[in-house]
Amino acid sequence: MSFRYTSRGLRLQRVVGLQSRLHGPRPTANTPWQTCRGVASTPTAEKVLFPGALNSEFTHSMEFIQPSQAKAIPTYRVMNQYGEIIDREVGVETTDEEALALYKNMVILSIMDLLMFEAQRQGRLSFYMVSAGEEGIAIGSASALTPGDVIFCQYRETGVYLQRGFTLSSFMNQLFANAKDNGLGRNMPVHYGSKELNIHTISSTLATQIPHAAGAAYALKMQNMQNPDTDPRVAVCYFGEGAASEGDFHAALNIAATRQVPCLFICRNNGYAISTPTSDQYRGDGIASRGAGYGIATLRVDGNDIFAVRHATKEARRLALQDGGQPVLIEMMAYRVGHHSTSDDSFAYRQRVEVEDWKRRDNPLTRLRKWLEGKALWDEDKEKALRSSTRKDVLAAFEQAEKESKPSIRNAFEGVWAELTDEQRAHVEELRDILMRYPKEYDLEGFEGGIGGLDELLASKKK
């Protein structure tokens, strides 16, 4: 490499060289509409050569694109609502044993949701969110991923955690924010996280996980290139159609597309963003139509069909790792049967008959159960036994977690800096002073170590 003698030119070339060493060569475009020719348009050209819209054909007929007149993007399914396989030659691409395990996890999820919802209404939990109507999306997609894939959830992906091995005790410990909680009591309920399962901790702020996933996927792309002998990994991001109205969604898809990163964007379109129906959210053809606009491979799937969800996720993961990496968007169609959360009364903005109709007509549990019964793999006796044992297991984990102590107060200060700063030390000392002076107002009996946690913190950081 030769350097120019101007300070500006020397600095520029050094930056370019540094970027090349850090990031490797820029990924080459691999889609036909991104292939650019470095020549201007000729008098006989039949296609546009402007760099902003390559390979668009010229026309003398002016016709505006009218999305309302175009056909809607189709919805992929494998099994109809009666549990019947549509294409018997292809089948479900799932073994009987796998199907039974998936169904059992969906039942566990639905029972845990019901019991935890009731517990919140009793005042034993402060907050909860159910997954009714969306169990097949979370469990089905998670079953098609590998343990090494990095996952970013929104807040209705309890089934993803369950399918990956998050235990009932882990769920309950987080809901109670007790001393055994992975997050040490720092998050509100249903904001799970697991380093061991490669699932980032859920954030309350809507859609922030989407650009995080795009960035993580870029890092995974670099790792996959640097370690070709290891199994390649993808980033997977879950979000609702309401989150797709945030600016973070658009920024994330654009950077993922331009950098060609191995990322699966899975949108749960359940019809409502809290109280806002999709009819008030957008006028386009759902969320899938946006994927094509960003140059991303896109598919719309029937979220009540767990076999379709599994097959779509498997294929999307394969595509995401193809040719060095590319993002894929899957719009999973569902209906949110439950309230948005325990803080919401959905019957204030939708008719009860609408919800009951969906519960009766179609949902992922009944559809899979019909398929299992059609193959003589399931019956009413097995159903009753599973629900009875599951209820006992959930309640046992709940009662045990409820008895555990709260985390040590020191956790309110640790984990921010490697060592306690002078400012933090002052805060700890001030808090300790208040707790000592007003013991009746601040009962520390339920916290692990009581005020001793602050004493240990101050003593361990003294120089």
What's a concise summary of this model?
The chain is α/β, with parallel strands linked by helices.
Task: Please count the helical segments.
Answer: 15
Q: Which strand order do you get reading across the main beta sheet?
A: 2-1-3-4-8-7
How many structural units, i.e. domains?
2
Q: Look at the structure and name the CATH superfamily of the largest domain.
A: Thiamin diphosphate (ThDP)-binding fold, Pyr/PP domains
Helix content bin: 40-55%
Structural class, from helix and strand content? alpha/beta
Stretches with pLDDT under 50, minimum 5 residues? 1-22
Q: Quick one: how many beta strands? A: 8
Task: Write structural notes for this entry.
The chain has 463 residues and is α/β, with parallel strands linked by helices. It has two domains: 74-403, Thiamin diphosphate (ThDP)-binding fold, Pyr/PP domains (Rossmann fold, 3-Layer(aba) Sandwich); 409-460, no CATH class. Helix content is 42%, strand content 7%. The chain has 15 helices and eight strands. The strands form two sheets. It has a six-stranded parallel β-sheet with strand order 2-1-3-4-8-7, sandwiched between helices. Strands 5-6 form a two-stranded antiparallel sheet. Helix 7 links the parallel strand 3 (235-240) and strand 4. Helix 5 packs across helix 13 and helix 6 (209-226) runs parallel beside helix 7 (247-259). The longest helix has 26 residues, at 96-121. The radius of gyration is 26 Å and the shape is globular. The two termini are 51 Å apart. The model is unreliable at 1-22 (pLDDT under 50).
